[in-house]
Specification:
There is one protein chain. The protein has 472 residues and is α/β, with parallel strands linked by helices. Helices cover 40% and strands 20% of the residues. A 7-stranded mixed β-sheet has the order 14-15-16-13-12-18-19, with helices on both faces. It has a 6-stranded mixed β-sheet with strand order 9-8-7-10-11-21, with helices on both faces. Strands 5-6-22 form a 3-stranded antiparallel β-sheet, with no helix packed on it. α1 runs parallel beside α7 and α2 packs across α6. The longest helix has 23 residues. The chain is globular and about 65 Å long. Bound molecules: nicotinamide-adenine-dinucleotide (NAD). Nicotinamide-adenine-dinucleotide binds next to α7 and α8. The site of nicotinamide-adenine-dinucleotide has 32 residues, from α7 and α8.
Length: 472
């Protein structure tokens, strides 16, 4: 399979990129370049936005059933290519193939399926006194996405935007653009009207900023780091454009003294290390009641030691590499700093063995982390778990909320009411009690510096509507 791509998808066609500049795409497990994609320019963004703007009236007023039919055809085409999607993510990101199939390919298909249903229903109207309150598509959407879940992060924007009647210009991460090309092959086959969905690849400072600053983009929907979200907000603020932001996290896993400790620690470690820890919702702080803390540290160290690192295409591999050499260096620096700040290494660490080739970091558990220290406050985005003892429920809540982030979290207790009381007190967009499963129809998003707005399900659709009051 020749993976190199030379085109953008503009106005319903593959169009050869004009600049001639390319961006290399690496296999992080081997450090080899496996493909190149074109580096877009502000002029390419202008063309894409013009195509989307021209498509707006037709798509916004299309019958909901027609929009749902396009999304349904897209779902069918992608479902037929689920193995290619999983293999592409395993190649360009390093997610073990089993996880790539279930999560990286499976989850976005579930999300898309949900929006096929929602797209078929026109938005609810409401009568308020003498006003008819109607919902209308917000306009042209600029979508900018990260590398850690390359198809899911795109689908969480694209599917609801299209369902609501908004054309989209997408810029995927330059580190993992190949999955987006597979998506656009399917979009091309699904028969969307020209201009409704457009793809420009390139770097954040060039293509991303051109989208965020473009006067004809009505909503910038961004997922990525908090620093980039701040920059995008500034650019959008100049023209009072809307922004939806899904940003970083430092989520707490609160294990109370009456919890099923082996279960809580096992699931907690797996959550922290999912996708090599490159997951925005990862429970990277494990807070354990002091009476059971030592036992929990031992269990976490044992669990981490059982993770097998290696080739993402090997069935026995549980942990792949990090996405890039830069990301590996950032993670190593966080581990060094955590140990220098007084953390106690109980698994992994700087000297633990890793494969010779590839950007691997050993699964690492650091105990006795101070709640104010950098390791407890900064997003690491690698397989690194910080463990912190807490005195009681109030202390656990205080430590959990001692963060500028608020994306996700967990509570474990044998008493469901107690767990719910603690869950309600956490200042975070989602909390899972006793390992309850992820719900792709539930609202997803952050408090505080984890973001603005919600994705997924009906709440995710709401982001893409304007509200109009008609008095009569
Ligand atoms: P990033 O912010 O570096 O990049 C994200 C996207 O923004 C990429 O497409 C990038 O090219 C683009 N970009 C970079 N600089 C830009 C600029 N100046 N203007 C416009 N666009 C720009 O983030 P990343 O490293 O790709 O992803 C990791 C981060 O994403 C982590 O912080 C993680 O927590 C966060 N994330 C959040 C969620 C969520 O839903 N809350 C989900 C996944 C990842």
């Amino acid at each position: 399979m020749d993976l190199a791509r030379t085109d953008f998808y503009l106005d319903g066609h593959w169009v050869t990129a004009s600049s001639g500049e390319t961006i290399p795409v690496h296999n992080p497990a081997t450090e080899e370049v496996v493909a190149t994609v074109p580096a877009g320019t502000a002029a390419d963004v202008d063309r894409a936005v013009a195509a989307a703007r021209a498509a707006f009236d037709g798509w916004a007023t299309a019958a909901p059933a027609d929009r749902a039919a396009c999304l349904g055809r897209l779902h069918a085409t992608l479902t037929a290519r689920v193995d290619d999607i999983a293999r592409t993510v395993a190649l360009e990101l390093g997610t073990p193939l089993k996880v790539a199939t279930r999560v990286q390919a499976g989850l976005p298909l579930t999300v898309l399926h949900g929006y096929v249903d929602l797209a078929a229903q026109p938005p609810a109207e409401q009568t308020v006194g003498n006003s008819l309150v109607v919902r209308e598509p917000v306009g042209v959407v600029g979508a900018i996405t990260p590398w850690n879940y390359p198809l899911h992060q795109v689908m969480a924007k694209l599917a609801p935007a299209l369902a609501a009647g908004c054309p989209v210009v997408l810029k995927p991460s330059e580190l993992t653009p190949l999955t987006a090309y597979l998506l656009f092959d399917a979009i091309d086959a699904a028969g969307f009207p020209p201009g409704v969905v457009n793809l420009v690849t390139g770097t954040g400072p060039v293509v991303g900023e051109a989208i965020a600053a473009h006067p004809d983009v009505d909503l910038v929907s961004f997922t990525g780091s908090t620093a980039t979200g701040r920059r995008i907000s500034h650019l959008a603020a100049d023209r009072i454009a809307r922004v939806a932001l899904e940003l970083g996290g430092k989520s707490a896993n609160v294990i109370l003294d009456d919890a099923d400790l082996p279960g809580a620690v096992k699931v907690g470690v797996a959550n922290a290390f999912l996708n090599s820890g490159q997951t925005c919702t990862a429970w990277t702080r494990m807070l354990v009641h002091r009476s059971r803390y030592d036992e929990a540290v031992d269990l976490a160290a044992q669990a981490a030691a059982g993770y097998r690192l290696g080739d993402p295409f090997e069935p026995a591999t549980r942990l792949g590499p990090l996405v890039s050499a830069d990301q590996r260096q950032r993670v190593r620096d966080h581990v060094d700093r955590g140990l220098a700040d007084g953390g106690r290494l109980v698994a992994g660490g700087p000297d633990a063995p890793v494969p010779d080739r590839g950007w691997f970091v050993a699964p690492t558990v650091i105990a006795d982390v101070h709640p104010d220290s950098a390791l407890a406050q900064e997003e690491v985005f690698g397989p690194v778990l910080a463990m912190i003892p807490v005195d009681d429920d109030d202390h656990a809540v205080a430590v959990a909320n001692n963060s500028r982030y608020g994306l996700a979290g967990a509570v474990w207790s044998g008493d469901g009411d107690r767990a719910l009381r603690v869950a309600r007190r956490l200042r975070t967009g989602a909390v899972d009690i006793n390992g309850a499963p992820f719900n792709p129809l539930a609202p997803f998003g952050g408090y505080k510096q984890s973001g603005l707005g919600r994705e997924l399900g009906r709440h995710g659709l709401e982001e893409f509507y304007e509200t109009k009051a008609i008095q009569r």
